[in-house]
Amino acid sequence: MAFNSQDFDRKLAQWLKGRNGSDALARALCYLALILIIVDLVFHWMWPIWLSLVLLVLAWWRVMSKNVQARRQENDRFKQLIGSTASAWIESPVSMMTESRNYRHSRCPSCSQQIRVPRGKGTIRVTCPRCREKFTMKS
Questions:
Q1: Helix, strand or coil, per DSSP, at residue 1
Q2: Residue closest to 31 by CA, chosen among 78, 88, 92, 90
Q3: How would you write the pLDDT of the chain (139 residues) with one tens digit per residue?
Q4: Element (H, E) at 103
Q5: β-strand 123-127 against 103-107: which pairing, if any?
Q6: Where are the domains positioned within the chain?
Q7: Nearest-CA neighbor of 114 among 88, 76, 78, 75?
């Protein structure tokens, strides 16, 4: 019997239909579990492995949950708790690493709008897109 990847993809999509899927909280749990596994490899303690196993089971339960509304509310509270910048790092760490190398982020002193300017341009005058406040910042 030959392996048919299209058939496998269809069956997997059918099985995952109506489930929560991966969200920021599940990814954060997996990252934390990975950090605990590395800690265990360095220090040879037992509790990080057990805690990482619990975190991975919890992340898998979140991904497979069919109570999407409750998981979405939990994820929204988590993202609100950690803030937008940390949430963006959890969502896409590779693109945020590239972003932080190429751009500098700051906040408008008047309205706290986050502003992104290219790095390496020296001290520049910036206009806030929200409140039109003009201020200088180092890029």
A1: coil
A2: 90
A3: 567 778 888 888 888 888 988 899 999 999 999 999 999 999 998 999 999 999 999 999 999 999 999 999 999 999 999 887 788 788 888 888 888 888 888 888 888 888 889 988 889 999 999 999 999 988 8
A4: strand 103-107
A5: unpaired
A6: 20-91, 102-139
A7: 88
